[in-house]
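Z., the sequence and structure:
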Amino acid sequence: MELAYYPGCSLKASSEIYDVQCKRVLSTIGINLHELDDWNCCGATSASKMDDFLAVAMPARNLGIADASEYAELVIPCSACYSRMLVAQKMLQSNRNLLEEVNGELSSKVMGKTKILSILEAIQPTVHSGDLANRVTRKLEGLKPACYYGCMLTRFPYGVPTPDSVENPQGMETILETLGAAPLD
């Protein structure tokens, strides 16, 4: 599977090890990542608190770059970046004037054709196909992790469709069970 990849600022700085881990784990299970060319900060921690237009325009530039790429799906491991990009995409889809204003300044226009995936969504198809289970060389037997999703993967300020239950997400549990762990409720 070939996916576009947006690491975001954190994965290139303070969370660099997460970037390395994402690339290594996903490549091991047959998912090849292609980092977006010339991506920019999505503004998740700053723009969204200071300027409503920038909160959409900054991620929109990345969405335009993704739309211009050859990949239909874009994986974003950082939950804040994932949330910011999904919200911006939804706002642009629902507000034609905003889309035209933003696209007027972009060299790569937002077309809304790229599906945005969290790291969990990127891994899920390998669970359903059996590829993940087939690639496990050492089961996580005996581990009983408690999964924590935080608010950025399932709760959005706008009507953004979620791939998992908002009240009781199970994507992480499904992946961990496939790896041999016994997640706690």
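DSSP finds nine helices and four strands in the chain. The mean pLDDT is 93.

Let me know what you think.
H.
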